[in-house]
Amino acid sequence: MNLATTxxxxxxxxxxxxxxxxxxxxxxxxxxxxxxxxAEDGRTPSIxxxxxxxxxxxxxxxxxxxxxxxxxxxxxxxxxxxxxxxxTYRFSLAWPRIQPGGRGPANTKGLDFYKxxxxxxxxxxxxxxxxxxxxxxxQELEDAGGWPARDTALRFAExxxxxxxxxxxxxxxxxxxxxxxxxxxxxYAHGVHAPGRQDFGASMHAVHHLLLGHGxxxxxxxxxxGSNPLELGITLNLGTATPETPSEAxxxxxxxxxxxxxxxxxxxxxxGRYPADVVxxxxxxxxxxxxxxxxxxxxxxxxxxxxxxxxxxxxxxGVTEDGSPADADGLPVVRVVERELPRxxxxxxxxxxxxxxxxxxxxxxxxxxxxxxxxxxxxDDTVAEDGxxxxxxxxxxxxxxxxxxxxxxAQGADVRGYFAWSLMDNFEWAYGYDKRFGIVRVDYAxxxxxxxxxxxxxxxxxxLTRDEQx
Length: 470
Prior knowledge:
The chain is α/β, with parallel strands linked by helices. Helix content is about 40%, strand content about 15%. Keywords: Carbohydrate metabolism, Cellulose degradation, Glycosidase, Hydrolase, Polysaccharide degradation.
């Protein structure tokens, strides 16, 4: 059942009850998806600049050279953010803009842009929330081996120190990595994201070095901050794994899916160890994680917050559709089961109650305070004759997931904020400009920004919630 065939819900903004007064409301973006100015002021190519030039890699052969032109339109975009009434803006720094080539001294002009951005945000009463890495690895570091190479983790810690030295006096909230699963698996195993490699062993080495880079950067940031305020975290894309039936095969498929998608990352971060069952599964495929003495202690650096990017939960089966328990390579089957649920334009199932389940599981198993650092949906928006953008489907998506956060908090999950993805339509990676996640529409020909109905609903919901809390 496609969402387009379901009745549209017209929602009026109302106060959200069950949230504390200090609960954070935000919007989020990433550097390569919005900034443009790909070759200006000393910025060098990232792996995404290179990947976009590979024929067939990106829908329509598109790229982020201009994107939303945020680099030149930043002040007006900050004004837009402030007008939404959010208190926090999560954005990422472009590594090749700050440290061209991934080595050596910082690029003053690149840092100046982010200093201006942070100052603009503070001037409008919006808290900056920095992500150090949202997938735009300097191409020179990929040429030297990329994330499968240990040296990239060391370079990342150096870059983190440069960024904090320039911005730490005005930014308290720092996230090391965004979605290392995507960087490692989509980029190095499946080849559908930059750098486009297809090597499972290399992708698992990338997992370890991404996590090591996180730990080393976290240590560097703590040391640089000293006694200054610092809220430090990492952001993971997380979901749920539900068995199609109670059968042993389906439960085993969920164990494997959860192991590779969640525990492979959170167990070393929170507990200082890789899950033994996942290590055994990898060994059965001839893969060993490149762990050295001291690595796991570094990865388990203390965190203040866990960023949760949630888009959907999944159901799994341990047999193929014809009943076989093994795939063509002889490996146990882990098959995603397609359910009769409403879907987004990405063909992703809409599963808000599974966000509640996830948050409760994270509280139970890991005990780190959480913030929803991304949640949102792509739909095929249409501009009305009066210029408005009615997107009741996106508004309903946001409302249902905010309700899911409230439900999780009511049951004991320490969730401290919700950031809508995304502030505005942007370059959606391998989908180019074909998919629109924004609550603000961008006309790419004119760069005109238009508040969609979902943005107005979000703005008014935040205002009404705060009014009731006073």
